[in-house]
Specification:
109 residues; alpha+beta; Thiol Ester Dehydrase, Chain A; four-stranded antiparallel beta sheet
Length: 109
């Protein structure tokens, strides 16, 4: 078909989330070293225009709503200023030891 498989957009969302954490000097590795996990509990993606193989894509992301132990991460996938897909993932912060929800660290908010 020559277009990017739809599920790859969720991989792009994950990649941009890791870059956001790096940008605030709190990588996922640092989070795990501090005994925290941030699993996805919901994912949503709206597709507007297909991406094609070998397209140069710009992937934008930002942290949005933060409520206690949950955080929403918004994402957009662009090609030449054209929105291809947008969506979000919702994560819950867990203790790596107890696997119980804990408040999102200040470093992320």
């Amino acid at each position: 078909m020559g277009v990017v498989y739809y599920a790859n957009f969720l991989v792009y969302f994950e990649r941009v989330r890791n870059e956001i954490l790096r940008d605030i000097n709190y990588s996922y590795i640092d989070m795990e070293k501090n005994g925290l996990l941030l699993p996805v509990i919901e994912a949503h993606c709206e597709y507007s225009v297909p991406a094609k193989y070998d397209d140069y894509l710009e992937i934008l992301g930002w942290f949005g709503e933060n409520k206690g132990c949950r955080i929403k991460v918004f994402c957009e996938v662009m090609r030449n200023n054209t929105l291809l897909a947008s969506g979000y993932t919702i994560h819950v912060c867990l203790s790596a030891v107890s696997l119980k929800p804990i408040r999102i660290p200040e470093e992320i908010t």
